[in-house]
Amino acid sequence: VKTNKATIKKIGGKKINFSKNFKLYVIAYDSSGNELGKSVSAHFAGKDSKKYKNPKDIKLSTKTISISAGGTANIKATVKMESGKKKALSEGHAAKLRYASSDISVATVDKSGKVTGVNPGTCTVYVYAQNGLAKKVSVTIK
């Protein structure tokens, strides 16, 4: 997963209040203005939040899965939070972990991280924390 960093200081000409929580996503457009796609939304606490903190890392039980078509495997993932006494955003913002398959014709993944083989091939399952932090698991279906 490639990580890009951007610093946003104003939205609509107004200075951002970094004590608030935010939802951020990116939409890609072609040269004609047609929407090509939308990123996974990131829900995060502002850097000056007095109540909430953000995920810092995702720990995975495995980085590779190999199963047969029709077979299943579980991705066990845990979120490591920033240090301090503040709490994580509630799941009302977004699930603590979200999962997505790069190719659902090869393998699907449910909201708890259960991967199901569909057809032989390879794909990647992405595991996202609330703030958009991601890790990947390589999946091979035999």
Strand content: over 45%
The number of helical runs is: 0
Q: What is the level 1 CATH name?
A: Mainly Beta
Q: What is the CATH architecture descriptor?
A: Sandwich
Shape: flat
- Poorly predicted parts: none
The secondary-structure class comes to mainly beta
- Helix content percent band: under 10%
Rg (C-alpha, Å): 17 Å
Query: Separation of termini?
Result: 24 Å
Q: How are the strands of the biggest sheet laid out side by side?
A: 9-17-16-13
Q: Let me know the largest β-sheet.
A: 4 strands, mixed
Secondary-structure element sequence? EEEEEEEEEEEEEEEEE
What's the pLDDT, averaged over the residues?
91
Q: How many separate domains?
A: 1
Question: How would you characterize this protein structure?
Answer:
This protein has 142 residues and is mainly β. The protein has a single domain, classed as Immunoglobulin-like. The protein contains no helices and 17 strands. The protein has a four-stranded mixed β-sheet, with no helix packed on it. It starts with 9 loop residues before the first strand and ends with a strand.
